[in-house]
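We emphasize that the prediction below concerns an isolated chain of 423 residues; any contacts that depend on oligomerization or on bound cofactors are therefore not represented. The input was used exactly as deposited, without trimming of termini.
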Amino acid sequence: MAIQDIYPTALRLLGRPVLVVGGGRVAARRAKGLLDAGARVTVVAPEATAALRELADAGLLTWEPRAYRSEDVDGVWFVQTATGDPAVDTAVASDAEAQRVWCVNASDHESSAAWTPAVAEVDDVKIAVNAGGDPRRAMALRDAVATALESGDLPLRRRRAHRGSVALVGGGPGDTGLITVRGRRLLGQADVVVADRLGPRELLNELAPDVRVIEVGKTPGHHPVPQAEINRILVDEALQGHRVVRLKGGDPYVLGRGGEEAEFCRRHGVEVEVVSGVTSAISVPAAAGIPVTHRGLAKGFSVVTGHEELSEVPARADHTVVLLMGVGQLRESASALGKAGLAEDTPVGIVENGYLPDQRVTIGTLGTIADQAEAAGVANPAVIVIGDVVRVSPFAPSHFKTADYSTTSPNKPRTSTTRVLTP
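Result of the prediction step, given as a token string:
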């Protein structure tokens, strides 16, 4: 049978009787698929696998422990052979053909009246692939299409009316490769995207032309769209039946006000999903080779947004402090940590525009970093890391590496083209 002879379609078998002839692994797999479609399944086979017997014992299908008879085809809507015996499978297929019942002959796909495709399901989309009778080829193609749908490379967006919803998606620190697969998929399904200034902005260029992008980005000291208005936009758009993605930088629940937005949506009866993202508090230091914890240096870390909270964190070089949105208050923050007992020679690293082409790293000490940052014109978005973990960075000056802090030896200073300011 040539591939051109196939007419692709989908059968609705809910509540309809179907027959599976055979009791092996293939029969069990096919019976399970038919049960998932809602069919009333009868299995005819002298012996059956444990999986089939369990389904029968649970009352999910009927097992007739005997050899096939021609009358087994009477009154069924669909037949699947899977005995492993070509003679029996051919007899079943012939009986089905005589009664004009569609039959999949597992022993002879060339003469089979119907083929079973390789199937995958992504959200409410079912993918079925036939590949000229080559099941491995069909499975490989199915998996490739499913992966592309899951990653957002193929559109999953609905085109008919549906119930509105909101997804709070953490987009990571800005690199398009650091958004999660789930986040990318939801972005591809969106009707409306409510976007921050940070995050993977390049992905907005890949949206369909009719997807609306509502800009609500904030900069330090300038909030053109207040948080209350952002909350209202999310709910209003969802109540109009739109699938809304709130695309945020980093993680929605790490200093991102995602909790407030989720609570507001639920309070107004809007379904909301939270998709965690790669938070800049950890990922941006990593882009400069700075771990927030490191064996022998730091076992814990704190993330704060300003010098007011610094009185509540341990003022020790072995406890990493990560400052977000802290450039404007860097001098005050350094002074506060110094007064709390942190030594002036404690290493400090500033990473601007993490993971982006213009990433820049500035490294100094608690006593010098404010002057260095001012002289270099350091600006947000930037993440500031304070503690001995900064010594591990490949951008750290050689005199910072006074001991072997790495898990391999020797720990030789590495070179970089990134600009580094040292005291």
